[in-house]
Design brief:
There is one protein chain. By secondary structure, the chain is mainly alpha-helical. 68% of the residues lie in helices and 0% in strands. It contains five helices and no strands. The longest helix has 24 residues. The protein starts with a helix and ends in a 12-residue tail after the last helix. Keywords: Membrane, Transmembrane, Transmembrane helix.
Length: 139
């Protein structure tokens, strides 16, 4: 698949606001971890910054010989995005996030990212069979 920027954004919106939100609600309600609204803020900041990352990923992808973005690189991009959000919160702070336990952040981020990655590699292909052939655009 050669994702278009619109396709990347649509896929990010769908996965973050469904799969990501379901996983985050487990943390927010205290089923996993201490609970609290900070996890919702983290999810939304990951989503917002991710829209910007998608512009960069779309640009970088044009330099690959097959114009494709393999699943392994998608998974590795999650490491960079986590590092970035920790630095932004640590150095600048973000509204709504007054205290962030790094351990619980890593658990939350890892589970959200893994759930989104698995959904993008499996459920999206089942529920939207033409999704891959339309550059990631599902609407």
């Amino acid at each position: 698949m050669t994702p278009t920027l619109l396709g990347r954004w649509q896929t990010r919106i769908l996965l973050f606001q469904t799969v990501g939100l379901l996983v985050t609600l487990l943390f927010t309600e205290g089923v996993i971890g201490p609970g609290g609204g900070v996890f919702l803020w983290v999810l939304e900041y990951l989503f917002i910054f991710g829209l910007g990352w998608d512009v960069l990923y779309n640009y970088l992808q044009k330099f690959r010989w097959d114009r494709d973005w393999p699943g392994a690189l998608q998974l590795a991009a999650g490491v960079w995005e986590a590092f970035f959000i920790v630095l932004v919160i640590g150095f600048f702070g973000l509204p709504g996030i007054f205290f962030l336990d790094l351990g619980w952040f890593l658990v939350h981020y890892s589970l959200v990212w893994l759930a989104i990655y698995i959904a993008s590699q499996s459920l999206m292909r089942i529920l939207f069979p033409r999704w891959r052939f339309r550059g990631g655009v599902w609407l």
